[in-house]
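Trying the structure run again after the queue cleared.
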Amino acid sequence: MDYLIGIDLGTSATKTILADENGQILSSSSCAYPLKEVNNGWAEQNPEDWKRAVLFTVKDVIKKARIDGHKVRGIGLSGQMHGLVMLDEQGEVIRDSIIWCDQRAGEETEKMQNLLSMKDWLSITGNPPIAGWTAAKILWVKKHEPELYQRCRHILLPKDYIRWIITGKYAADVSDASGMQLMDVKNRCWSEKVLHCLEIDRSLLGELYESWEPVGCVLPQIAREWGISEQCVVAAGASDNAAAALGTGIVEEGQAFTTIGTSAIVYSHLDHYKEVPEGGLHLCCCAVPGCWHTMGGPQSAGLSVEWFKEKFCQNLMMQAREKDMDFFELLNTKIKDVPPGSSRLIYLPFLMGERTPHMRAWYRGSFVGLNIIHDQAHMLRAIMEGVGYCLADCNDLLKETGVEVTTMRLCGGGSKSPVWREILASLYGCPVRTLKQEEGPAFGAVILAGVSVGVFPGVKEACRQFIQEDQLTETDIQQEKIYQHYHQIYQKIYEALKDSLYELAFCE
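Done. Tokens:
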């Protein structure tokens, strides 16, 4: 029996799973680490925390499964996108990673727009300049920390740093590298034109691979620590969203999934390259060879719930402990009786700026319509609905490209909420489905590992074999009409507040 390992380097924790050649998950392990909010709108993490988490969880899944580690044939990687990891000549980390939700590089995106036309940005990178993406972060470091930039010899994404640790190879895969804004996304290669305009040396970047391709084998010292073979192959891997698409079986045009974790994404597979009107959705290479995907959604989805929980729900947290309940289980019981629309309360889910569909790093969250009748339950449901309105905006943009979604699957922590499922079904106007085995990006990484070593014949074939749907939530016609009305109000509020929020962002 051959075994495979999938590693998902998330924002709050690393999750690692071990599966056999039949796709059966035998064990899993996770290890959390902190997020550093250095300033308003900034977010950083220490790559050393990621390294420790990966070294621990891989060893742990092998121990839990009680298998011979030398029968682990392949390892796949998935990880949070856009993070900037800088290494010096010795391969040592120069500074904490500026991660995906960091919005400090707003001025750098303006500079990027002056260096190339918007038409060029969209035709080459598939996206307009974005503060949260890696290119703008590189420019920020060049300007504000020039002595650190001078020491930099390698620029990696978070999961690619882990691959460097375990294989000694500097590399990137096309799905994750698409989110650096340095690639010619249509032709799946680094863009010499973009690198020249931004004055970024090509030698700083690793070699590009398709997600399933083998990059190298595990280093001897790592193999000894884990108790596995030095012949164990490490695949290029994929971005968290591209890997989640495999883990949810989204590999055909017309298929889409929504994941609700710290952020939220509505993701759709494209068999062929299609430009997105005005860059309103992100357009990237996907983990299926020769295919692409669109994605969009708020950065502060589960993060908004977590923020409200920690700041304003100490009593509910105490109740959950007293009842020996998970907080989110209690949350769903509290909000199920709040009517759609949260009694005329609307939340804008932009605690960390907005990325799609309007790309405004300076945007911030707000509750609109607060009344003396509103309590925690109303506000928590309004947060869920606000995330849903933003996802519905992205789904509407997808329709403008000519892609009609016929299958919408859900994954991530938010998919466990029956209330959130009902909200999304009503806003999308189509049924939504959960999965029997919900391992998301980590299972997608397993699939890539299996294809890389020949255990599985191909990416699509493995997805068709292993991914099965579970719960179905139908759309409610009456609720759909209510949410269409509230969604329109949400859009008007967004437009009405944007200028004031811009002014507020730059107040002394």
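The mean pLDDT is 94. Worth checking whether this holds up in the mutant runs.
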